[in-house]
Automatic annotation (TrEMBL):
Residues 1-32 form the signal peptide. The lineage of its organism: Bacteria, Bacillati, Actinomycetota, Actinomycetes, Kitasatosporales. The keyword Signal applies. Keywords: Signal. This is DUF4878 domain-containing protein. It comes from the Bacteria. It comes from Streptomyces badius.
C-alpha cells in the first residue's frame, strides 16, 4: 500500500518532468529559425557571409528575390571576388534610410589572415522576407518606358 505522501511525490515528479519536456520542446522550436519566412536583416547578412565562406554561389543566389534574372550571375561574381576567405563577422549595422522595406546592411569582418573586410549589402523586404539585391526583375523595362538620361541636354 502506497502512502498519500508517496502518491503526491510521484504526481509532483510527473508534473515537473512534463513541464521540463514542454519547455524543452518550446525552446527547440524557437531557436535558430533562419528560414526565409522569418529571416531578419542580420540573419540574411550572416547567411550572405556563410555563402561567401563556402564559396557557394547557389546559396548566395537563393538569398535574392525569387524569379529575378541574372541573380545567379551576380552571385558568381560576388563569390569570385570575395569567396572562400573564412570571414568572421565583427559587426552588422542595419540602416533603413528609405523606409521600412529597404535596408542597407554594413558588415565588417576579418578574414583568416586577420585582414579587415567590409561590405554593404542592399536588401529589401519581399513578402515579409529580407532578400539581397541580385539580378533584376524579369519584367524590368517591359512597360515601354526607358530610364531617365543622366546626360546634360545638348
Amino acid at each position: 500500500m502506497t502512502s498519500s505522501k508517496g502518491k503526491k511525490a510521484v504526481k509532483k515528479k510527473s508534473l515537473l518532468l512534463s513541464a521540463v519536456a514542454a519547455c524543452a520542446l518550446l525552446a527547440g522550436c524557437s531557436q535558430g529559425d533562419t528560414s526565409a519566412a522569418s529571416r531578419t536583416e542580420r540573419a540574411t547578412a550572416e547567411a550572405y557571409v556563410a555563402a561567401l565562406n563556402a564559396s557557394d554561389a547557389e546559396a548566395l543566389a537563393k538569398l535574392g528575390t525569387p524569379g529575378y534574372k541574372d541573380a545567379d550571375t551576380d552571385a558568381r561574381e560576388i563569390i569570385a571576388a570575395d569567396g572562400g576567405r573564412g570571414l568572421k563577422i565583427k559587426s552588422v549595422r542595419v540602416s533603413r534610410d528609405f523606409g521600412p522595406d529597404v535596408a542597407s546592411t554594413h558588415v565588417t569582418a576579418t578574414d583568416e589572415q586577420g585582414k579587415p573586410f567590409s561590405t554593404y549589402i542592399q536588401m529589401s523586404r519581399d513578402k515579409d522576407v529580407w532578400v539581397i539585391t541580385l539580378g533584376e526583375a524579369t519584367d524590368f523595362g517591359k512597360d515601354g518606358k526607358t530610364a531617365a538620361s543622366t546626360e546634360s541636354p545638348g
